[in-house]
Amino acid sequence: MAIHSSKRTDVNRSAILAQLGANGPASRADLARTLSLSPALITQLVKDLLAEGLVVELEQAPSNGGRPGRMLGLATSAGRAIGIKVVADHVAFVEVGIDGQVVRSASVPFDATSSTFIAELVERIRDFIDAGDGSTLLGLGVGVPGSVDRPGNGVVDSAQLGWAGVELGGALRRAIGLPVIVENNVNALAVAERLFGLGRSHDDFLVVTIGTGIGAGIVVDGSVLRAASGGAGEIGHIPISDDGPRCSCGNHGCLEASIGESALVRRAREESVIGAEDGIGVLLAAAESGDERAAAIYREAGRLLGRTLAGVVHTIDPAFVVVLGEGTAAWPFWSAGFEPAFRSHLLRHRRSLPVEVETWQDESWAQGAAALVLATPFDAAGDAGDQGRLIRARIVGQAVRP
């Protein structure tokens, strides 16, 4: 199968698959209108997708005059991907169609520090697969909070999980018997944003997550920036003070140690805003009820985030910023500190930079992981390696001919 080198072409091709998957068969003219692409470009893209077995021609579309158009449909309408979000105390799963839409989801307890954590993870994955309807699975995408050497290899280092050099990808491939792509969880969200979100229209943007941790996915020239060891985007470990609280990474004064969920809860307990056993939900409820002390905690977190992100923006020059994560439930309170700090620390010509805050659901992490599988037909950079080739073979192998 020929894989295009143009990243913009890759995104447009994925948009065609997503459109057909979400809305059913369409003509070339329909796709051109819906995706705001020229008819000539649609014709070329569809020609390539037909040649690769990803799209098939169906019956002719009705016409008001002139030559009737052929309807196009997915050749892989039954193909699905599993997305897995791994955190310290639980695993979230989704099963998605090739259009990225969630078919089913689940969340189960998990202990990442257990001596048998890989066996436990394998068991939970098998249980989720067995509970499905037997649809053909293209592969597994796994998002983890940490650095991954390469998505197609899947060797993980994660301070949050207490993992060092864990060969997760190989272990899961051997046990489950499906292709496996492993990536940093925020990078996985950036892939999903690139395929299905605002990132379809831009080659350079920044995805920022707030919640348990603070992270970023950096998209430059259409590709997620991974850098030397796959750890690009760890903005939560930017030092913001010399004597700040100790971070999970072992250093002092990291951004995450000051504005991550545990840091906000710790400060709220210290200031008696919430009880000694209360968590982030109680802090948010206090802010929503008008407690100025609770609002001030979020406001200060927003200020620190905004000031730090201004520096990141000056470094990578994105077209826009997307904010995601569990913490966005409290964004109105973060924003009160974020907006003035962020705008005032930007160079004057950058102060109108768009910042989009997207609605968050916990399954979004796993949906991002599933996008790792869905992106492999257009993996121009080859980061998925042999696993990407196996996924592409499964897609074409199950093509339904009219």
Automatic annotation (TrEMBL):
Residue ranges constituting the HTH marR-type domain according to the UniProt record: 14-57
CDD domains named among the record's database cross-references: ASKHA_ATPase_ROK_CYANR
Organism: Agromyces aurantiacus
Pfam family, one: MarR_2
Protein's UniProt name: ROK family protein
Family indicated by similarity: Belongs to the ROK (NagC/XylR) family.
Taxonomic lineage: Bacteria, Bacillati, Actinomycetota, Actinomycetes, Micrococcales
